[in-house]
Amino acid sequence: HRYNSETRHIERERSKVPIIAEAPKTERTPTPPGQYVLTLKTIKEFESVDIFSDEVDPSTGEKPMKRQLIWVFEADKKAPDGTPYEIAQFTGLYYGDDRANLTKLLDWVLPDETHEKKRKGFNSDVLIGRTFRARIGLVKNLKGDMKPRITMLDPLDSTTLEDAVTAVFGPPATTQEPPF
Description:
Blueprint: E1 2-4, E2 34-49, E3 65-78, E4 84-91, H1 101-109, H2 115-120, E5 121-123, H3 124-127, E6 131-140, E7 146-155, H4 161-169
């Protein structure tokens, strides 16, 4: 996968078949606020209605679509059901504006790269599997609901989740029998 600043917008042919039902949503336990070690699992492309646009297609009455990225991270801590917590960050495709989620995220995950290099594009395959020290906080979304959100990411040099957890929190406690 390669993000390229020249492909920020895409044209999409609209289906003539009406959508009768939405795909089922999986219910996951929200990631509680706190400190974590996160591993970037995938970066997915996603298209949705641009809720911020004032434009409406006069022939269909629909708002335009916009392309986004979903960055899916897996936490070192597990939910009550035993599955690792997962947190997704949605970003646009624009780098450079300090208010843009992509700018914040790329500045966190690629702190040593220049702004110019990040603006030109990045190889997402290189980022998959990298680990980060992270802080999760609760942030109000557009609907007014409090949702978990990454508020800080700091890259770790470790290559495995176990090494990353040890780098942040120290080695796991061991129980040894007393020598007497």
